[in-house]
């Protein structure tokens, strides 16, 4: 059986950076915590907890210590609240997300009506929205773009992990909404690279294994794209592999979401090779 890894897979730059920052701020007394899980991967969150980086859902849960802002970022009010509570703030927001947040703020400050193209419930999109002082409109479909009111000045920013192709389609619908449009294509290449590499591999193998948290939007998207090309299973760890999946399979492709640790990818790879 041949096992092939996608050309681009696993941790992206922003996630690697956030985990490094979290580890540098670990504390033996449990007072260093990320606000929300640092990444959408339960195994990594557990490992960090053992290393001295906890996770809280709300700042109220922390009486002292260091709050680590995860790569998805947060709105400005969270920084203010953390400081007001006497917490030290360590910012591990991905620089690409930071750029989208500050772009939204700048556009609002310059009098643009702002549209954020992205998933309404995604924490990163919520944070970009908060940096727009709650003034931006969030859309994620062409129909929603059609419904945007025409305006004098229109500024567009995008969720960093949004599909480049869908972004273009939606922007096309927005072009007629204003004569003064600023488009900030705040998409990060990590997502496009992983998606293109996954689709390419999925069209050459009999079975794709997509590794990553079941709650990870980018991993779920990879699994969906691969399933359009070949038989695909979305797994979190090697323990989920089942013998019957591999009947008559000659080539297996492996990819992983941007929040999937290397050690999990290696375990799955080895287990497939040893079949
Ligand atoms: Fe940053 Fe792109 Fe990763 S925005 S967190 S490098 S997917």
TrEMBL record:
Pathway field: Isoprenoid biosynthesis; isopentenyl diphosphate biosynthesis via DXP pathway; isopentenyl diphosphate from 1-deoxy-D-xylulose 5-phosphate: step 6/6; Isoprenoid biosynthesis; dimethylallyl diphosphate biosynthesis; dimethylallyl diphosphate from (2E)-4-hydroxy-3-methylbutenyl diphosphate: step 1/1
Protein name per its UniProtKB record: 4-hydroxy-3-methylbut-2-enyl diphosphate reductase
Record-listed dimethylallyl diphosphate binding positions: 40, 72, 122, 216, 218, 259
EC annotation from Swiss-Prot or TrEMBL: 1.17.7.4
Its job: Catalyzes the conversion of 1-hydroxy-2-methyl-2-(E)-butenyl 4-diphosphate (HMBPP) into a mixture of isopentenyl diphosphate (IPP) and dimethylallyl diphosphate (DMAPP). Acts in the terminal step of the DOXP/MEP pathway for isoprenoid precursor biosynthesis.
Entry cofactors: [4Fe-4S] cluster
Transmembrane segments: none
One Pfam family from the record: LYTB
Cofactor remark: Binds 1 [4Fe-4S] cluster per subunit.
Gene transcribed to yield this protein: ispH
Binding site for [4Fe-4S] cluster: 12, 94, 188
Protein species of origin: Mitsuokella multacida DSM 20544
Residues the record marks as active site: 124 (proton donor)
């Amino acid at each position: 059986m041949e096992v092939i890894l996608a050309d681009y897979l696993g941790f992206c730059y922003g996630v690697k950076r956030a985990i490094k920052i979290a580890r540098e701020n670990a504390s033996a007394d449990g007072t260093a915590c990320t606000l929300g899980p640092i990444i959408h991967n339960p195994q990594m969150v557990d490992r960090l907890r053992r290393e001295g980086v906890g996770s809280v859902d709300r700042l109220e849960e922390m009486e002292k210590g260091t709050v680590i802002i995860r790569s998805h970022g947060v709105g400005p009010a969270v920084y203010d609240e953390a400081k007001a509570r006497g917490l030290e703030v360590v910012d591990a927001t991905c620089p690409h997300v930071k750029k989208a947040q500050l772009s939204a703020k700048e556009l609002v400050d310059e009098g643009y009506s702002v549209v954020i193209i992205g998933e309404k419930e995604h924490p990163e999109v919520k944070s970009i929205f908060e940096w727009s002082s709650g003034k931006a409109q969030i859309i994620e479909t062409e129909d929603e773009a059609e419904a945007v009111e025409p305006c004098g000045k229109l500024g567009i920013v995008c969720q960093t992990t949004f599909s480049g192709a869908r972004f273009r389609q939606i922007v096309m619908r927005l072009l007629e909404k204003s004569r003064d449009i600023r488009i900030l294509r705040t998409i990060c290449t990590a997502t496009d690279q992983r998606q293109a590499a996954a689709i390419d591999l999925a069209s050459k193998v009999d079975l794709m294994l997509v590794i990553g948290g079941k709650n990870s939007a980018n991993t779920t998207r990879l699994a969906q794209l691969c399933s359009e090309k070949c038989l695909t299973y979305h797994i979190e760890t090697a323990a989920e592999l089942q013998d019957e999946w591999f009947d008559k399979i000659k080539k297996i492709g492996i990819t992983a979401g941007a929040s999937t640790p290397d050690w999990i990818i290696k375990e799955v790879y080895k287990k497939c090779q040893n079949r």
